[in-house]
Amino acid sequence: MSRFRMYPTPAQQAAWVEQCGYARYVWNLALEQWSMWTRDKGATPGYVEQARQLTEARAMFSWLRAGSQTVQQQALRDFDRAVKNFYAGTHRRPKWRKAGLPEGFRIVGSQASRIVKLSRKWAAVNVPKVGWVRFRMSRPVPEAKSYRVSCDRAGRWHLAFAVIPPPIPSPGTGEVVGVDRGVTVSAALSTGELLSCPGLSEREQQRLKQLQRRLSRCRRGSNRRRQVRAAIAKLHARAGDRRKDWVEKTSTDLARRFDVIRVEGLRIAQMTRRPRPKPNPDRPGTYLPNRRRAKAGLNRGILANGWGDLVTRSEHKAVGRVQRVNPAYTSQTCSVCRHCVPENRESQAVFRCVACGHQANADVNAAVNIAAGRAVSARRETPAPVSLKREPQHATST
Length: 398
What we know:
Structural class: alpha+beta
Distance between the termini: 24 Å
Shape: globular
Largest sheet: 5 strands, mixed
Helix content: 25-40%
Order of helices and strands: EHHHHEEEEEEEEEHHEHEEHHEEEH
Number of domains: 2
């Protein structure tokens, strides 16, 4: 998806907020109809029936008629597609849309009549009920049948075109790379490279702590609290932009340099869950310490390093060339003699084999094992060695 930064005027921003409200209202109304379905009732209204009901509602209520019919009907189409994707098992259940969260609306139509190039770096898009709005052409505008106008938590407006870029062709050198993801080192490659995902600087982190303390002292619903929340959102958005930029550049570099990319098959959603409370058997109604603060810090580190985004974008760009390897004991196995004991890893960064004396960076050693496809079972059985020769081109990701 190609996204561009938009720069609307204050009047256009106010008009967009109203359009987002109309789209959110129609979406939530359709979701309410769908959620109230029971087995003793008939089928829930589809898009055609809901579009007819929307036409009747617009004729009855002037406040609804003031919004764009194109935006409202498209919200019904999007909801209908979301329900079909949910029943197909490819997407999650549609959720309620809330004001203040990242929201927007989608426009479908001819792109030639809606996009006008103003200069080498600027262009304008025609949005219903708003008019022509400028956006920055940071890259060539792709050909698309629809675009989406959205606003993030930091109050920035973006224009996104739903296009699928072509995959990056393999270099044909037969090179295989293993990627070990971590918290201290974001990604360690089997070639010895250590990559770190940029985040907030020390000064920005101090600023974030000050704003969070100030937010705790603000009265709920006050203008000062709203301003502090906006400042915090800008810092988080800055960190997110840096992380996305790093993920895009790293995944592109991996897809261009290597034929096969092997990563650990980690279940990040399960790894970042909150720890379950431990009831105290001696004192009913109380709980034992479960190290939830330490787990929260680990979860923040995992999410801040973009573990999932790096693999997802690599799979998009290197189609069929990303393989997931069983991560069991890859950090405790020697990449030279294959000896596997916990004592091999002296610390987070130092690996020293107690059998052969091989010493290397712990993350790089794990990446070498991942590149070779080396993994052991829970009983630590040593499998047969795997060759690092060129993989067949028809290999698919698992």
